[in-house]
Automatic annotation (TrEMBL), chains A, B:
CDD domains: SpoU-like_RNA-MTase. Belongs to the class IV-like SAM-binding methyltransferase superfamily. RNA methyltransferase TrmH family. Keywords: Methyltransferase, Transferase. The keyword Metal-binding does not apply. It comes from the Bacteria. This is RNA methyltransferase. It comes from Rudanella paleaurantiibacter. One of its GO terms (cellular component) is cytoplasm. One of its GO terms (biological process) is methylation. The keyword Transferase applies.
């Protein structure tokens, strides 16, 4: 049985302000909690229903400092999901450390991607296409938002992120670094020789695309050819299609 | 000023039961309403704020039978969007007519795609890739659900759909018709010679994929190669990536 104080504390983590203050975020649902328990994230607290706890026996060295068995109703009451009859974890946020592309590696640059669902989807796509690093402008959705974590379907445990002033970051990249940027009037992604040297792929805001200040740092502007009449593709969809072409072209 | 009865009637259309009973569905927000007014859908009623009405002067032959000027608050109260300060239309649903692929045409087959957001996204992707026909299993999300309409970003005006028993439909296709199906263990989509003959692309349920009963009607099973560790891709993302490869391969 969760105390009123405890429940209130957990619910406070629905808000960015308190996530930052406490350095904790929520991971919800069976699959995500299972993945975070198996990852190198530090889980402080596990709230689990008896069903989840029995099915997911944890080795002694993986036991979180605090484990509580709760009812599905309690879980749903403190979490953000419509229903959760499995588990919820309070997990330590990570230090914000700089990330750079190693030779041959693909790194995503997100400029002002605002929608948490889109960011979560992009983490999942990155994870599918073997992209391990995502650099986000300071204005991009906060990765610890429960909607991001949930939309990433566990991929947040395998992808690293770095929030920074993206203009300064891009300016500091060595001359000659391949930086592809997604625009509506770039080169046809089907004809680009991506090669195997790796580099960066920059994706922009849902409504406005990549900011003009960043354009000079893009070495090649790419476009997904359109065969019909939709005005645009969602940023998550576009990320997947470009990464697919990149991986395909690099074989 | 909307009467209480009128407001109640509009709100009843949030539910499938009443959409079916009245043969009407909701289109909300400036962009979608503008597109539906310019399409061949029959708009019965337009509720618009003064701002929207002034900016979108309608030629006499495009005036809906009923037009009301309302406040943004009234709009938001009767609609499903978090806020809507532009317009809402009540639109006649279409007859459910059979669709088939013409030579060279690509048609989507959706088996039990349950999430309205996914269906809306798929309509938008279809529209981008020049796919004009989508055939849905009877268990696929209802296309007139406001979440589908909204996620399609206006593409519902350019893509046709047909709801049917998908097993019977697929069984009735002429022998030799190319039917590609998305599976986790099919042929690498990067290496498939799609050619220009067109055909069908079948996408399955979010959790379970394509039903076993449909497998015999799939002539070629396709897979998006994975380079990392995510368990799967969202069905909308996978649809976009496969269509992109199909269009690229058909050039």
């Amino acid at each position: 049985m969760l105390s009123k104080n405890r429940a209130q504390f957990i619910r406070s983590l629905h808000q960015k302000k308190f996530r930052q203050e406490h350095g904790l975020f929520l991971v919800e649902g069976a699959k995500s909690v299972r993945e975070v328990l198996a990852s190198d994230f530090r889980v402080d607290t596990l709230l689990a229903t008896e069903a989840f706890y029995k099915e997911n026996a944890l080795p002694a060295d993986r036991q979180p400092p605090s484990v509580e068995i709760v009812s599905p109703e309690e879980l749903t009451r403190v979490g953000t999901l419509e229903s959760n009859n499995m588990a919820l974890a309070l997990v330590r946020t990570r230090e914000n450390r700089p990330l750079l592309a190693e030779p041959g590696e693909i790194v995503l640059l997100l400029d002002d991607v605002r929608d948490p669902g889109n960011l979560g989807t992009i983490l999942r796509i990155a994870d599918w296409y073997g992209v391990r690093k995502v650099v986000c402008s300071d204005t991009t959705a906060e990765v610890y938002n429960p909607k991001v974590i949930s939309a990433s379907k566990g991929s947040f445990t395998r992808v690293h992120w770095y929030y920074t002033d993206l203009v300064a970051y891009a300016q500091a990249l060595p001359a000659g670094t391949p930086v592809y940027g997604a625009f509506l009037d770039g080169q046809n992604v089907h004809n680009l020789p991506f090669g195997t040297e790796g580099g960066y792929l920059m994706m922009g805001n849902e409504a406005n695309g990549i900011r003009p200040e960043l354009v000079p740092m893009v070495s090649r502007s790419v476009t997904i050819p359109r065969y019909g009449d939709a005005e645009s593709l969602n940023v998550g969809i576009a990320t997947a299609v470009i990464l697919d072409n990149w991986r395909r072209g690099a074989m």
